[in-house]
Target: Dihydroorotase
Amino acid sequence: MNNVVIKNVRLYGEGDPVDVLLADGEIREIGTDLGVIDAQTVDGAGQVLLPGFIDLHTHLREPGREDTETIESGSAAAALGGYTAVFAMANTSPVADTAVITDYVWKRGQEVGLVDVHPVGAVTVGLEGKQLAEMGTMAAGVGAVRIFSDDGHCVYDPLIMRRALEYANSLGVLIAQHAEEPRLTKGAVAHEGPTASRLGLAGWPRAAEESIVARDALLARDAGARVHICHASTAGTVELLKWAKAQGISITAEVTPHHLLLDDSRLETYDAVNRVNPPLREASDVAALRQALAEGVVDCVATDHAPHADQDKCCEFAAARPGMLGLETALSIIVETMVKPGLLDWRGVARVMSENPARIVGLDDQGRPLAVGEPANLVLIDPAAEWTVEADDLASIARNTPFQAMTLPAKVTATFLRGRLTARDGKIVAG
Ligand code: DOR
Ligand code: ZN
Model:
């Protein structure tokens, strides 16, 4: 008996509560009078049911830095955060630039069984930006790579990027660009602006991101290819996306929860937990990113979950590694920054955290409507909950959350992968 009934839930937070029967990995029935059923019951307590979240941008650190995150610990963090699929970035050690690695990541994720861990393949060998990796063999492997990215590094050479886009187009896969012109960010650790100047931190100009976004939009146009912009962080990037989309260019973009909540005033303490690439920008950028996500100029939320060891974060700002944890706090931050101010309703949350990421990457078993016959990849959310972030309580091995001790709204109370409960009330449910 693997059937589950989720009782008393509001689909997309709308209308009267209903019961939802999950069987054989699908939504079998939705109604108020499902009769007596031999099934495990999950009390939905009138909470919000949405399609499970999909993260297009997660760093899981396996292979190579299992002291900071593994596919197992990262999968647990994802399930607790309401995710049913994540895309694990290629900047592991060794780099995921061959099918041996990308297939391993997929298989290990399936073994753990908490969330589908889709491998991201590197665009170039060793993320060095010099020679294209064997994208075709990675796409054809059991890991069936759908996203290629050198994330952490920019594919800065325009000719290599052009070839990557052409090649990706013929394979039907997506290039996700970490937009950073490296010649403009040499030594940079913080957003270039008054705060960095005052604090004596080397500045990272907006133009480092925007010049690559503009360039790649034009390259995608000429190649007739799609391009996806990772972690958009500036108001100028928003304007460029608007322009490119108006031209009919196939460009999509993601924004991180941290760029929607935090700005560079956080750097005043020199606490390196706030160091991230791209850097935290100014309040005006934050406002523009929120508006862009509400309007669909930025398509989706992606966490850029980036675990780092204490010794790499609890040190001088400029010596610290960039990156922050994100999987377990993402939903709450989207509620804080988008739902509470009235920029998104629950349908909007489903759109930016589930439906749009699934569409961008062509996953047909995720981000589906809450309807009979659809795959039962689901998340249950208590919209009235409040909780205080405590790094030591997170499932991630690393503890570098910038949201430590913040009280945030809304909590994931259950996650279902193909009809099976993976997380419930802050605990992993063993498979
Ligand atoms: O802050 C970041 N951390 N940005 C990146 O692009 C890479 C990531 C990491 O791997 O730690
Ligand atoms: Zn990146």
